Amino acid sequence: MEINLVISTTLLLLFVFLVYKSLAPRGRRLPPSPAVSLPIIGHLHLIKQPLHRHLLHLSQISGSPIFFLKLGVRSAVVVSSPDLVEECLSKNDTIFANRPLILVDKYVGYNHKTISGAPYGDHWRSLRRIVAQDLLSIARLKAFLHIRVDEIRHLLSGLEKASRHGFSKVELRPRLSELTFNLILRMIAGKRYFTQEKEGEQGRFLEIIKQVFEIAQASDPQDFLPFLQWIDYGGFQKKMIAFSKKLDGLLQNLVDEHRVEKRNTMIAHLLSLQESQPELYTDETIKGIVLTLIFAGTDTSSVTLEWAMTLLVNHPHMLEKARKELDSRVGFHRLINEEDLPNLPYLRSIISETFRLFPALPLLIPHQSSEDCVVGGYDIPRGTMLFINAWAVHRDPNVWDEPTIFNPDRFEGKDQVETHKLLPFGMGRRACPGLGLGQRTVGLALGSLVQCFEWERTTVEEVELDEGIGLTVPKLNPLEVMCKPREVMYEVIQGAILQS
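Request: output the structure for the sequence above.
Response:
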């Protein structure tokens, strides 16, 4: 029995190796690799966390801002310079508009039918049009302005309650998560799900969504060594099937609730469109859009806000400069509003510099080539995964002076940075359609925090900038700061609290 098992295993490995060799591109000038590719696994053994930092290290080993990896049966290129990013997502934008098919998106993403995971084609174009031109259009964002204002008031109310008797220590992460999560969920479903109690339906919803984030951040060897799918290595597919049923039930309940109760929400709007175009606006399409909006619109903004506040308390003179700008251009008799944002260039520079140093997605969601092409003078075969290391692009010393230093003044007088040099929302056809909402949310929230409260570090030492692990790379340790309401803004804060 043991001998037969050894023989079977050996034959299986030989078969996989032959397939691997047959898929290897020949006669092409591929980008350099950082090491020799091993049989079967290729360069998988080189992949380590944090991935964006390690990929930059591999780029330095290979001596090139573009390098080639063999990840099991998949080919991949990693790009970490703005010129190469522009070549990939501008010159070759259509070719790289595809997504690699991965198991998580098969089971959780409705078999690759969400806007983030769908292959480039008619279905994806329909989803993009629905989200960009309808759900997240300027007109609809204006219609939901009252939600953003109300959630900012909730944030200010909680901070005032925690610090009304003088400087008090507060942890910002849960408060910022509550802000962004409720903002998105109220737009989508008309409900506040995130409160301190987290009981009943609310608690179950939050737990499932938390699991979505954890699953999305995970990769599985079966994506790169598909023969492992035959035995469901680690039981991954079984777990995904069970979880996808639970998640689908949660999202279906949201849709069904809106069939009974008419609300002014995104789901209600999609259901009204379903009546005239049921073949396009299916329940599955609606649930996929809801899932994508929750995933893309919550963690990204809260993580950016936490990094921005970390950087400001580490640089109190820059915090004071931002406060003086707000005082002079908004005043002491009202809260900042979204119409003020274009007139606050230093606040915008702080946000741009935060995006640069700590992009919400340090690695853009992977692309995949739909045909052979050339990038940087190298041949890129059809079906190659493309990883764009935005974190490395943002810290390229050939582009940015003192790239590791927090310096908002570098953006002074620049209304717009070239999109291939600053990539917080991606670039090209697959760029994030939530750019407008993200900029409004971060700008209004950060401006309100600076305008209404005084902030200090909890210790003399600067707050550490260690990164955690995840797609959005939060701070390793949640930010704790000393906070108290500004005396000149106290009456305005109180008025906002009464309206919340």
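The CA atoms of residues 65 and 295 lie 30 Å apart.
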